[in-house]
Amino acid sequence: MATTVAKNAWSTRNILVVSVVLSLVIGAAAGFAAASIGREPLPPPQHRNVYLFTTVLGFNETQAGIDFGTDIPHDYFAPDRITVNKGDSVTLKYYNTEDAPENHTFTMSYSTYNFNKILQFHDVQTFNFTADLPGVFPYICTLHQPTMTGYLVVLEA
Hints:
Layout: H1 12-37, E1 47-56, H2 61-68, E2 75-78, E3 81-85, E4 89-95, E5 104-110, E6 113-119, E7 124-130, E8 135-140, E9 149-155
Parallel strand pairs: 1-4, 3-9
Antiparallel strand pairs: 1-2, 4-7, 5-6, 8-9
């Protein structure tokens, strides 16, 4: 009489592979749930007035140019980051607040908008746009690089 030995259908290797795959699936689901539970929805689109100013850093740009071997302007934007929500309509008022006659530009390409305007000494310019594309977009003064750079941050719902 012949005896047959039953083989275990689940080898150690198979159990290990299934355990790893199952852990990955459960971990991904838990991470997604944790990220979704604590997130509040963005408010409905609104109109935002943003005020942007030229500002001067407190250093001697002539000495900095000597030290670094290149011209380093002492101008920058205040604020250097503007955060809005997708769908917001934005009115940006840019003030050239220099103490001495000096021009600046506001240059930004965002969505279908391309701004490139020179502001004369003590000039104020207004820029209007709708934040329809989420992401991070630089705005610069082409006359004072690399220090005069800021970022428009558009948050997605």
